[in-house]
Amino acid sequence: AQTVTQSQPEMSVQEAETVTLSCTYDTSESDYYLFWYKQPPSRQMILVIRQEAYKQQNATENRFSVNFQKAAKSFSLKISDSQLGDAAMYFCAYRSTGNQFYFGTGTSLTVIP
Amino acid sequence: NAGVMQNPRHLVRRRGQEARLRCSPMKGHSHVYWYRQLPEEGLKFMVYLQKENIIDESGMPKERFSAEFPKEGPSILRIQQVVRGDSAAYFCASSPPSYPPGRKEAFFGQGTRLTVV
Question: For residue B100, is the peptide bond before it cis, meaning its omega torsion is within 30 degrees of 0?
Answer without folding.
Answer: yes
